[in-house]
Write a structure and sequence with these properties.
The chain is an alpha+beta fold and 146 residues long. The chain has helices at residues 18-37, 46-66, 95-101, 115-128, 139-145; strands at 69-73, 77-80, 83-87, 106-109. A hairpin with a 3-residue loop joins β1 (69-73) and β2 (77-80). α1 runs antiparallel to α2. The termini are far apart.
Length: 146
């Protein structure tokens, strides 16, 4: 008979689906690139519209195939199912760092997320991306209000 104290986490089967992890990584890469580039052009510019449509399509495809896209936010990383799917530097160019700095610890996209919601998220993130000298508000508070 095996006692549970004799089993280490390494002995347990890996429940991760490699295709799902890979899809999460691609989707989050598209999200990160768009978060970094949002604001280069006005919101109604063709480049911005196409970029947001691409991210929306990527998120919807993931959610349709695997269910909600929920990932943890660490100081410089995004984690999906205990796998690092994005890692960057500790600066304002790294969306994980900005979100973590402002108190976000996880982010979830669920079935039915619309392009308008995604655009609002991007606008809000862009507004709070750089920390002012005397902040009156932060990203998390703004998202809760929305």
């Amino acid at each position: 008979m095996v006692d549970s104290r004799d089993i280490s986490p390494d002995d347990l089967p890996d429940s991760s689906n490699p295709a799902e992890i890979s899809a999460a990584e691609r989707t989050v890469s598209a999200l990160v690139a768009a978060l970094r580039n949002f604001g280069l052009f006005p919101p109604d510019h063709a480049s911005t519209i196409n970029m947001l449509a691409g991210v929306h399509r990527s998120v919807v495809n993931f959610v349709d195939q695997f269910g909600d896209l929920c990932f943890e936010i660490n100081k410089t990383k995004f984690m999906y199912d205990d796998h690092v799917i994005y890692d960057g530097s500790a600066n304002d160019e790294n969306p994980a760092y900005v979100m973590y700095r402002d108190g976000l610890r996880w982010l979830e996209f669920a079935k039915g997320v619309g392009e308008d919601e995604l655009k609002t998220f991007f606008q809000t993130f862009h507004h709070y991306r750089e920390m002012p000298d005397e902040p009156e508000d932060d990203l998390v508070s703004a998202l809760w209000r929305l």
